[in-house]
Queue: 4 jobs
Job 1
Amino acid sequence: MCTASFFTLFSLYRSLSTPISFLLSSLNLGVLGIVYFAFASYEFTSQIRRIGGRESIAVVKGAERDLFFSEIIILTLPLIFWSMLIWGWQIAFYLSNGADYPRYVVHSLLSVLLYCTIPSIISIFLGACLASRGRPTAYGCIALASILFSSVSLQILSGASMGDFQFVSVLDWFSISVPNSNWVADGVYGISMEFCRWVLVAFWSLLLLAALLWKYSAGKERRLRFIAGLTGLLAIACGVRFAFRSNDYVLYKDNRFGSIVNSEYQYRRDREAPSEAPADFTVEQYELDLSIQHNLKAEATLYFSQSDLFLYQFTLYHGLNVHSVVNEMGETLDFQRNGDFLDVSSAKPIKAMTISYSGQTWKYFANEQGIALPGYFPYYPVAGHLSIWDQNSNSLKVNTRFNETSFSVRVNTALKVFSNLPEQADRNTFSGTASTVSLYAGLLSKENYNGAVCISSPVDGQTLSFTMEELEEAWENLARDVGCNETLSASGKTIILQPYTIGAAGANNEMFVLLDDHILIADLMPSVTGACISYLEDTIPEDSCKSILKDKFLRYLYFRNESPSSDYDKPSYSDLAILKEYSSAGEIADIDEWNQYNFALETSYGSLLAYQISTLGEQTVLKAIYQYLTSVDQTTHPVDFLYNLGGDNNA
């Protein structure tokens, strides 16, 4: 097994480029350990029974038990060597990349312990428990346990259900292998090692150990029976804690209802888009006291400029449950929740209120392992009713236009927290004036990159490939080409490279977010072109009727330097007619029509754009399209607009 592991690690070492991706792939060897040590334990501990040796040692009191547990201890020697082999490769990869981040060394050791060493110990106990069984029964149980303990069954059945019964409610009890291994490794969050995952492996270890102690303790050995009973009680306690993990933030990336892939879509799909309402008051100061352990707990004290209102309207993410609202005198205020909206009423004038809440924050994780709370996400009460969900793209709607206010933030966590606000003398305490506050923690470091402060993970290979001056220059060129009057000022701002999880879980509007004093980038491969185009996209109002032209427009901007400069023929209007019959391919049930629609969209409509650019000139067409997309009064269908651009109407 060690030889197979060595060559597997050697192959991964040559093919992967970042420490965190190498670690995630290496931890898949944990399944090999489960299978190998379960069979080895069974064969080793059952050998005395197969050769008829039990009668020989039965005459000595406790001899069979002592021999049995000695055999188990002997199996831990190759287990330790194998675990150190996997961890040693992590250190070698880490050093070969020239990294200087000791916290990652500890992180990799804990992840090997959680997903390789302890699962193998569980499998040793399992094989020992089956020692008195015949090979067919034992092998069948080990094979079944190996399938359940691996992540394969969870990946296949995570989205399956039978009525209201979700299969994951059972499969989660066996998920002791590394999760989310089919996703891009997240260098900020690292390997998922939430508290409940440690509780689960403790449950299985203690449960099987209790069974062994009880089995091999004679009736008169009360001390051993007492230890077995105590171990069993500890196992039950771990099981109860794992069963009540619903309040814990756990980063699920499979197909279950509550995963970061599906949860928000499932919540929003049958809900009507809420009506926005601007605030008729201003928050002059925020005092945010956050406690982040297994989830986010907060007390937000808000001081107002307008104190004689009856109703105060806020936006606070729906996954955060409000427990109480009190005024500056400690008197309870009535409040009502409606999705992401929070309405607080007061019968008399108030100067401040304190809102206590806790909960989970979707893909913007906040627990003992990592924090990713961007300022555009309402994890604290924001004045007014703001729509935070884009129904057209099924993604978060990024709000960036907040009033500048004073912030005082304290984060109670064992992690080192980074923010756009200046840090004060006390650890994880920040204060200053800004339009919003972003908080991040995990495998992060702060470095100076060409004069700009950059907060990023040193173990995921994500780096800036451009300076702020290059970004501003590229934006000026792009804005001139399309006729955009927006400015982009990046100099002096803190750059935060967001976790891969945010980008990979669907972040159409979050690739490049420009705030007053910092920039958030969620692009997996940050580039100056991608940053500029993402910023340009934010200036275009959402309109599903114009989406086909918007997509072609943005795609052309991404790849225009690669586009061949040759002449194009104008497609016939009839080839494009189907694009006016349906707003998207998802509306089409007939497969032939579906293929026809996609061909018209990808080929004919794309050729039409290329023809107009080659005929009228690139800047002329790009400016006309941008003006069309940003004009709310323009109701012409995008097929007609592009076809008739320049007055050449051959429809």
Job 2
Amino acid sequence: MNEGSGTQEGMGGLEEQLRERTALLTHAQQIAGVGSWVWYPHDNRNEWSPYARRIFGFSDDAAESGDPNLFFNAIHPDDRDEIVRHAWESFATGSRSSAEYRVVHPDGSTRWVRAQAEVECAADGDPLRVVGVVMDVTDRRRTELDLREKARFLERAHEVARLGSFSVDIARRQVHIARETARLLGIGSEPVERGIAEFRSQFVVDEPEQWAAQMEIAYRGGGPFSFEHRLRCVSGETIWARLHGSVELDEFGLPVRAVAIIQDVTEQRLLEEQFRQVQKLEAVGQLASGVAHDFNNLLLVIGGNAQLALATDDGAARTELTEILRAAGRAGELVRQLLAFSRADVCEPGALDLNCVVESVRRMLDRLLVENIEIRTELTDDDATVFADGGQLEQVLLNLAVNARDAMPDGGRLSIVTDADAESVTVRVSDTGVGMDEHTRERVFDPFFTTKPKGEGTGLGLSTVYGIVTKAGGRITVASAPGLGTTFTITLPHVAAEEEREIAPAPAAVDDGNGQRILLVEDDAMVRNVAAGMLGRAGYEIATAENGEDALRLFDEGNEYDLIVSDLIMPRMTGLQLTAALRARGHELPTVYTSGYAEAELAPDTELGESRFVAKPFSGEEVTAAVRDLLQRAA
């Protein structure tokens, strides 16, 4: 009895130890996130640890049933066939197996698991059981997926930014070219390695030794480095690359590795070059404006004196005086081109039909171009109204037509085509001439640039075109290649067509002056004398003032005048300021304004009263016509 009791007590102790160890194993599996299971093939029964049940989403009742189909039914349908096949292959060969797959919980949620299993066999090789462990790897898989997505995003961002990277193993003299850099250079879509010398000879353009010197400076200095250099792609295309990198040093301060990002900045360099070209055009334009203003005054003196001399000449010098006037007129055209280019020319913009401008120019081209050039116009049926100066648009088309004529010495075809949509109106001027190379095309709008022989071109034609189009709020582009002709495309903003307005009849012509008193205000003595001679010969009584202050003093002394002729740009007081000062004193007089560049001064919202504008250099007929018109209106 005592012996039996001792045996029972011993068995009870072993069972208690087994329970403790089982509980300890279960707790350890829970801490490690690992579950275990056993399959007994002879009676086709499964056992599941508590944490394995939790991983697969089994209830205790389902797990304790031992149903082997419980496992296969839990596998995600998309993974089931592959896992079942893999499990049976491992069981048949007795090999250890490992797999990751998805399981579906009863609530429909999906988890990723990683399972490993091993077959235990008897001495005769008969399989006794299959023991496996399983881990929930859902969080790891999600992290990996997130990392892959971020890597794809970063790779795409690098591709869009044309940004790559490379590293240099200085000891091995090897360059590791990352995937995006390989794509950038046209090597392929996978990372590659090249020797430093091979990399320089194959990809570095323009003084590879300079690249080597820059990298050598970076190696010696350690730390960050940055520079730009041209690289040659496998296709032969060259790109500008900007490098930002850093050199790693070992414990002795010697360089061991350089890592750098490389960005394609070719488009940025092109934009910077275009910006510099625009700045150059604007600077030359400002210079041209200042020179043209002074030159206009000289031309007025030359032409005006020649005109006055012709009026009194007995015929001996008439031919010479006429030639002087003709030369002054041609010089005036050149000045107008300079002013149009510099955006300082006086113009009268308004709503106009671009098709009408083309038709007007078409009639002139019949006389301008030689017979072996075919002229073709194709005008849009849509509304083609733009806001610009008609005369200047005619000048644009004529300049482009002359260029086309010179590009077709053996004849060809000149085409002018218009098109319009809701936003813009386009005119394309094309020729079948010799075309332009890249160097000429890049400089075609530069002032004073010409491909014509010396003495046959001023180099201002296309600069003038550029200035007029830009001033009208448009843009102009050129497409050309040697032997393929040239097309200039002008795009202007589309505006609504103005309603037709009743035009008042022009006032009837009147005779020249009958002693009306005119105050001429002009700071240039030679211009003042010529203008006074023109007006005096027309029958007006002329008083002169050197500037606005002198003019005010004449009024303050009690002098009275019927009209003022005033320069707009004068020292100390402009023409508009003089008008405002006289108005403040109660003198409201009609005024003829003159200037060589007055667009900024004659802003649309300026209160001018009764006034006219005459651009310098003017003729006697032009200035007296303006005076007559204002005096008639004031009568």
Job 3
Amino acid sequence: MGTVAKSSITLVSISDAYSLSLTPNSCVIKADFDGSNPKLEHAYTIISAYCGDEKPPIEIDSSTIIKSNDNIECQLIKVDSYRYRLSIISLPVDILQGYIEIPVLSGVSAGLTGRFTFSIVRESTMLDWIQDWENNKTTIGSSYVITPKIFVGKKIIGSHDSLEDVPGLTGVYIGPSENNGAGIYGYKDNKEIFHIDQTGGKIGGWDITSGGIQCEDGTLSIKSEGTISAQSEGIIHWSLNKDGSASFANGNVTMDVEGNASFKGTIETSGGSIAGWIIGADSIYNGTIGINSLKKFIAIANVASVQDIGNQLDWVKEYGGVAMYCISNTNYGLIGYKNNEKVFSAGSDNFIAGWNFNEKAIFSGIQTNSGFTTKSGDITISSNGIRGFKWRLEKDGSGALAGDNITWDKDGNMNFKGKIDASQIISGKIDTSLINTDAILSNGDAWALLKDGSGYLASKNLTWDEFGNINVLASLSLPYKEFYINTDSTPTPMDLSQGRYFIARYGNIYGDQIIELPTPIKEYNGSEIRIYSGFMTTRASRSDFDIIIKGNGIFFYPGYIPVLGSPIQISKVRVSNKEIILRCISLGDFVFWYIQNFCDFTNDDFNPQ
């Protein structure tokens, strides 16, 4: 006699992703025929909780345990912070089954309860009415019948030496068998269809032995020690082992007791998750990392969590990250973004750190494979050479600077379209005496190009420092250029990149003549502008000539202070038949146009109506 424990686990699902585990969740207890002497050695369960794959600590109060019968005695022992052992230590003799409910009071979630069930099987070998039976006799009592043999089935007429000789025998025989045994045998048309005896049994194509149950050909077996397997010709096709390990597909899929699985073949699925990775019909992703076979990309996006709209490739372009994609044979590549700005790409569009590249060249701006680039700032590096705006270095060693004004061939022969002024050029070469440790080129006090970038010309009457500041000791003259005003009487913007000294010419003698100066900026600091209008006021002219500043700017003059209460602000100046001299002045972040010849104007010339 003993206790049979079922190797199973009850998981009770609760909110917050917690569950309660009882291992086992039930047991079978053997006792004597009258219910006494129950075998309780294995009548126990281990209680624990799970939150996902983690075991949280739990607390159980023994006073809260509920029993199906008050006479059931049990014992609760705390194994550690995560497990309790509940054991049945005594049972009343008048029950055949019952349960014990175990509430978990704290540590996981209120209201979580597990139930441990049991049943009692009473042994018949100890029945007193069997012990008093006289062997080989049929005894009939008030509540029992004892007989050495019994057959239930069809009535067969005739005399036969044994049951096997009876033709067409159909029925069930209970009684002695060979080797001093006994059993139950079932026949149909004289063919045994099942039996149970001291050697085991057979029923429905299954053979039963003390070692387990197996089908007739042995291909499927359930062993009493806890293993279930299918095999043929010495090959185990699959097995579930008693220690929890398993194997399938002729050993190509295995799982150990820790839950680690190994697959030698392929895995196909239309959905699910593995270790935090979500598997879909066309994609696999884990948060901001995604692989999509339908949209053809692999992407890692720089976002903290999954976004509501779009996919990982969209998030890379909006928030930053790296992606590899192939949407079509004209739209593919490897891209990197910082925030929503592209840092690099390689594929159908090649770009890195502001540079584009392809199979022929690396370039910034517009690719140019010969001559000069067409735009300032553009550079192309190719197998033909390196070139920029007005300069080039060809692959054969030749090149040009200053827009072809300085050129040289592959043999080093140079051509200067401008002038080289020096007092010591010997045999067509620059004498080494003109080069010293402080200068790249020099001719004493006449001129020099110093290695720090500074230099001087015209016997030091024109000098500049390494920062580009120029000092002119002699006079500096600039030519006047004609500036024509719009014929539709609208303000005409003045382009200072075309010069600094202008002679204004009218466009419409009957309309307003207005020149619009550009807004003063730091790049104009120190620049002088002269505008002469002597040819504007002729006998044919019917209008005056005014100057304004773009953006409703104001002119500054001696004594003007741009604060509350300062003199009137000048936003327009009339310069009919005069010359106005303006200079741009920058003070910190403050930049303005200053009227140098303020005294040449009257009050009527300022803000004229």
Job 4
Amino acid sequence: MKRKNLDNKTWKIAALLTLFAVSTAFSPGPRKIYFQNIKTKKIDSTTVDFYGNTKINQLPTGTFRVSFISKLELIKFTNDKKANIPVYTFRKGETYHFDNHLFVLANNVDISSHESPGIKVNYTKKTVKGERHPVAVMRSPSMETRLTSPEISMEKSSGMSDFSTDDIPISSSPDKSKSVRAGIVTAGRWSDLENWSKFHKTHDEPSIKSIQKEWGFDLLHKRVSIKLTTHEGGALPLQKLQLRNKKDSVLWTSLTDNSGSAELWIHPFSNLQIDKKEKFGVYHLTNERWVFLGNVSGDVNSIEEYRLNLSQPIANEVDVCFVVDATGSMGDEIQYLQKELIDFSLNANKELPCSKIRLSSVFYRDLGDEYVSKKADFTDRIEDIMGFISEQSAGGGGDFPEAVDAGLNSAIHELNWSKSAIAKIIFLVLDAPPHIENASKIRELTAIASQKGIKIIPITASGINTSTEFLMKYIASITGGEYLYITDHSGVGNSHLAPTGVKENVDLLKNQWMNVLLKYAKYGDCEKLVDSQQLLPIMDPRRNIFGNQQVIIETYPNPASNFIEVESNSDILGIKWYDMNHRLVVEVKNDQPSKKKRFEFPVQIPGLYLLEVNTYNGTFINKTLLTNGYKS
């Protein structure tokens, strides 16, 4: 009898689980869809959101084969003409619904009833003139449902920091602004330099050794770690070091970081074996002269420390550059990453109040795309870099490798890095490797980054393979950095590669890269420096001046908090706030027109906005950054 009751319970539970699994399996998104142009054979991708919606921006109007599985399926089609791959006609700029491997135009559907995602909805189907391929009816919820849908949630894991749900408005449509926000993407963090024995052990595996050979890196038994301090033990950053062999040939050049540490390497791009008894000279640049500090052996898994008769330099500049893969395959994650980048920009000055932080960004694609790389140089105007980031979108690409070398080259050679910055960091966000024929260029750029004291922190997204993972780890180690990898915990994007030889340490991406920034940028005692007036925090908000030859408008402050003051030589009739997609957020009229007016800030969501000032002599627009109510 007990057995029968137990079986009944078991079957009930199994039935519920089956029902849940079925409803989940056929719920719309988010997921990546791959397209192959019938004429050009070029492959691109886009992402459907959590409700099965996608807007076709990066594709021209035309006919495409569609894969719901992988890019590889489309590539194989050229060799197997009998492959059953669906074909659709898409129009650029149109929004489509996707469900159960079928598409339909958003304006192709009349909604007569709607329920929650994953439950069948009744629709009335219309005919779209000009469609050459059949379309099917979707189960996607209506716009009203999307606007009131619950926020994306994730159970907090043990050891994780609190999650933030603050919205930052750079979304392309109103319904997405609720789901695409900072504080969702999760990532792991790993330092091979701090786990060097494990790094060696991982490379006992022949397949991993072959990856070294593939990319032309060989770091085993070739590392020399140096630390410079004052006689009192204080760190000495910004010191140039060289490693030389017995013939006095320079093997490696680098700068010490905020902890006074530097990584020097013995032939890291050669499979040349190093004699453990061989000695190498460490040299320090002092008063434009190279001074010999001492001899070291290769890869003794210890830090050689030298105490010098120098004072600690006063330094507070921090340069951070975001280098981002903007090819089509990044479509599943780029909107979330844009939010995270802007969140980082807003929080950096709070975390380092005594630092002068400058930000820059490079977005890259591949040869033959709309562009190979585009950049925004270093600036301490947060609103400028936020504007640049929010304007970018994913598109192009086609084959698996992308122009990673072009992105890094632009960042390392074309940006105005400060020579006196205590930290110089590149966050390299990507989901594909460089072209293998450009491996030598990647090695060259890595060495130059080390010479300039630039740490490269790769952040890998969905789509990378083990070969790309280890290439990124090599780049991070050589430049004295760390390796970050986006994980599946948040449910954002496609499946992510589990790291090799790594003890997982997962947290929100916003916490991970902020911790990386603090690790490499924190220097000196902020309070003492402020008290002694040696260094003052950068806290002064700016006045923005814009207009034309006849009308001059001045707004204060920018960034804004609870209010904004507008002053003009022409009477002010009112102001309007727009998001970065020119969607009106709110309008405030000035009942008594005057040349100076204080407006209480009506928008409660932090981010970058367009401020439109309407005067008797014309209307003028300028960017304004809101940090009011922002939570870190």
